[in-house]
Amino acid sequence: PERCVVAVDGPSGSGKSTVSRRLATAIDGIYLDTGAMYRAITWAVLQSGADLSDVDTVVKIAMETDLSIGTDPQAPHFEANGVDVDAAIRGPEVTGAVSAVAAIPQVRAMLVQFQQDIISGAPRIVVEGRDIASVVAPNADLKVYLTASAAARAQRRSAEDATDVVATEADLARRDQLDSSRAADPLRQASDATTLDTTGMGIDEVVTQLLSMLNSKV
Ligand code: C5P
């Protein structure tokens, strides 16, 4: 397709990132990891030493953070205030704090605007997150909601990070709970999204299925 926007939402560990990057490459498009944007802002907040419960200060730091967002699906690279944060945003401190920062409406409003600007400037783009089909790109050409069993999600995540599978499952459950219960743009399935349960499916199989869905729409 000459132009297309694909929205990929779902809980942590559903395979969104791997699948979205592969799909973006397949359509010769760019890739937007909105979770990494929330993570980079959270990194800057933690770096400042601000108290996470002090919402006004967190918002102020978020507004002042200079984000550089990589959109190359082969190697998305992120900087916050000129610092390479690719490794730090995946660490336990950021992972532990990101859902609290992402629950703040002003932080979301700022990042959603930023995301929409990137989307409108791109001919073909795959955007992954929690609220893409419902809030960020309601007019997306294809909306997919990826799920997998809690055990499968924990297994994939702990294989990626070499962490303990039981602790990982508990952390995923904790973030899913926070992300689905917050008042501002919670994780939920858009009514017009297609759900794909990837438990037991390989990446190639998922990507092939999404490509054929996209081809039937655009
Ligand atoms: O996808 P990832 O696990 O990197 O996202 C990290 C966190 O960022 C999520 O747990 C969620 O709190 C937040 N997030 C969000 N909205 C998005 C993407 C991520 O609230 N569109």
TrEMBL record:
<dbReference type="InterPro" id="IPR003136">
    <property type="entry name" value="Cytidylate_kin"/>
</dbReference>
<dbReference type="GO" id="GO:0036430">
    <property type="term" value="F:CMP kinase activity"/>
</dbReference>
<dbReference type="InterPro" id="IPR027417">
    <property type="entry name" value="P-loop_NTPase"/>
</dbReference>
<feature type="binding site">
    <location>
        <begin position="10"/>
        <end position="18"/>
    </location>
    <ligand>
        <name>ATP</name>
    </ligand>
</feature>
<dbReference type="Pfam" id="PF02224">
    <property type="entry name" value="Cytidylate_kin"/>
</dbReference>
<keyword id="KW-0547">Nucleotide-binding</keyword>
<keyword id="KW-0808">Transferase</keyword>
<dbReference type="GO" id="GO:0015949">
    <property type="term" value="P:nucleobase-containing small molecule interconversion"/>
</dbReference>
<keyword id="KW-0963">Cytoplasm</keyword>
<dbReference type="GO" id="GO:0036431">
    <property type="term" value="F:dCMP kinase activity"/>
</dbReference>
<dbReference type="InterPro" id="IPR011994">
    <property type="entry name" value="Cytidylate_kinase_dom"/>
</dbReference>
<protein>
    <recommendedName>
        <fullName>Cytidylate kinase</fullName>
        <ecNumber>2.7.4.25</ecNumber>
    </recommendedName>
</protein>
<keyword id="KW-0418">Kinase</keyword>
<comment type="similarity">
    <text>Belongs to the cytidylate kinase family. Type 1 subfamily.</text>
</comment>
<keyword id="KW-0067">ATP-binding</keyword>
<feature type="domain" description="Cytidylate kinase">
    <location>
        <begin position="6"/>
        <end position="214"/>
    </location>
</feature>
<dbReference type="GO" id="GO:0005829">
    <property type="term" value="C:cytosol"/>
</dbReference>
<dbReference type="GO" id="GO:0006220">
    <property type="term" value="P:pyrimidine nucleotide metabolic process"/>
</dbReference>
<dbReference type="GO" id="GO:0005524">
    <property type="term" value="F:ATP binding"/>
</dbReference>
